[in-house]
Amino acid sequence: MVNVKSFDCFPTTIHSFSLKIDHEPMIANLRFSEEEDQLFLLPNFKPLVDGVIESTTQILKKLKYEYDKIEITNMWANKMQNGDVHPPHTHSNNFLSGVYYLKSNNTAPIQFFDPRPQAHVMRPDKHKDNTLNSDIVAIPCNTGVGIIFPSWLTHWVPPTGSERISVSWNFIIRGKYGEPNSLQDVNI
Predict the structure, then answer these.
(1) How many Cβ atoms sit within 10 Å of the Cβ of residue 183?
(2) Residue 34, pLDDT above cutoff 80
(3) What is the layout of strands, in order, in the sheet containing 145-150?
(4) Are 141 and 8 in contact (CB under 8 A)?
(5) Please, where are the H alpha helices in the chain?
(6) Cα–Cα dist 74/94, whole Å
(7) pTM for the complete prediction?
(8) What is the pLDDT of residue 177?
(9) 57-89 burial, b if ≥16 CB within 10 A, otherwise e?
(10) Starting from the edge strand earliest in sequence, which strands make up the sheet with 110-113, in order?
(11) Does residue 35 surpass a pLDDT of 80?
(12) How many CB atoms lie within 10 A of CB 144?
């Protein structure tokens, strides 16, 4: 008998959290505009901001990162109607990004693309899709649930089946980056 060992190399982790907060005060104050990206400063969004910060703190602890503080760089609202698509994109100049669903019934899942371009050069037939053999992972979007992911991870939303209202945000972590004395280290 052969003893096979496996090593997970270079994993990309996506995290979810759920909050039991009142969505109505947030929905009532939403303006869907590119200029409205400071929702985290509004009092009605404090319960969401507190949940996002607590979740992100837990994630950074699990990932074993050292940092001075975490900072939300922006937070904005998204509204999609039946048939709307959000094209593939990333969130440049940030470390972690997220989305929280204020209203989502029968809507398309957020989908993340495998960031390793060479991983799917050869694509044999599969018995079943799973996270080890797929180049897209779909995560359902449910009211009251949030998703946090690396900002560099390409994602999109395919055509949605009904109205969907969400709040998205970006985080940066303040502190030291790079190896000391490498001429590539920086304090952000």
Answers:
(1) 6
(2) no
(3) 15-18, 145-150, 96-104, 164-174, 69-80
(4) no
(5) 24-28, 46-63
(6) 10
(7) 0.92
(8) 92
(9) eebbeeeeeebeebbbbbbbbbebeeebebeee
(10) 86-89, 155-157, 110-113, 136-139
(11) no
(12) 15
Examine the pLDDT at 179 and tell me if it is beyond 90.
Answer: no
Query: Can you give the pLDDT at residue 151?
Result: 98
Q: pLDDT over 90 for what percent of the chain?
A: 76
Structure tokens at 144: 């009251």
Nearest Cα residue to 101 out of 53, 159, 163 = 163
Place of tokens 């996506």: 14
Q: How far is CA 40 from the centre of its chain?
A: 16
Helix, strand or coil, per DSSP, at residue 106: coil
Alpha-carbon span 5 to 133, nearest angstrom: 18
The residue to which tokens 């009605």 are assigned: 44
Among candidate residues 168, 165, 163, 171, the one with its CA nearest the CA of residue 23: 165
- Quick one: tokens of 51? 């949940």
130-146 pLDDT, tens digit each: 888 889 999 999 999 99
Determine the 3-state secondary structure of 126 from DSSP. coil
Spatial neighbors of 49 by CB under 8 A, at least 6 apart, are 40, 72, 75
Both structure tokens of 30:
């939403």
